[in-house]
Amino acid sequence: ADVITLPAKNGNVTFNHKKHQEALKDCKVCHEKGPGKIEGFGKDWAHKTCKGCHSDKGAGPTKCADCHKK
Ligand code: HEM
Ligand code: HEM
Ligand code: HEM
Q1: Distance (Å) from CA 70 to ligand 2 centroid
Q2: Domain membership of residue 12 as a residue range
Q3: pLDDT exceeds cutoff 90 at 1
């Protein structure tokens, strides 16, 4: 799927996989062990990797409600 819905009780996160693939090019940024389900994926992973990158690059959402939409 081009867009993956990541379920969260406080509001699901709509993740545009395709856009990230095209922008980042390197799958290993997120898929250390190769494409497919990510081992250990969840809250801590996402807040470190997703939010971490957005803060580092100064691009992409870092506020809770900008990712978690009810
Ligand atoms: C998961 C809170 C910011 C992306 C979660 C969960 C909580 C949470 C409570 C677990 C939900 C559950 O177990 O159902 C917060 C708070 C934030 C914040 C309080 C602000 C301080 C963000 C931001 C992003 C993000 C900025 C995106 C860059 C995610 C993702 C998950 C998640 C992808 C995992 C969903 C899954 O496991 O499928 N967050 N979040 N969050 N959060 Fe956040
Ligand atoms: C899921 C491939 C880049 C984050 C997947 C899946 C595949 C895949 C095959 C599982 C099937 C699906 O649901 O579509 C790839 C390839 C990439 C790439 C080939 C490089 C061209 C990325 C990047 C990120 C990312 C750069 C993060 C910015 C995710 C997430 C999931 C996923 C969060 C869902 C993981 C889960 O549910 O455990 N990817 N991906 N992917 N990908 Fe990627
Ligand atoms: C934009 C979520 C991982 C870099 C965004 C947006 C969302 C999002 C919701 C704003 C809407 C959009 O443009 O699609 C996530 C989630 C991640 C993740 C849930 C983890 C599964 C990453 C990583 C990086 C990254 C690892 C960098 C290494 C960016 C950038 C933008 C962005 C640069 C701005 C793109 C633009 O405005 O064109 N992300 N992201 N993201 N993300 Fe992520």
Answers
A1: 23
A2: 3-69
A3: no
ipTM: 0.96
- Give the three-class secondary structure for 19: helix
Ligand nearest to the CA of 47: 1
> CA–CA separation, 69 vs 11, rounded Å?
5
Residue 51 maps to which CATH number?
Answer: 3.90.10.10
Structure-block tokens of residue 36? 């497919």
Indicate which residue's Cα is closest to atom 43 of ligand 2: 35
pLDDT tens digits for range 15-53:
999 999 999 999 999 999 999 999 999 999 999 999 999
Nearest to 68 by CA among 10, 19, 17: 10
Count: domains in the chain? 1
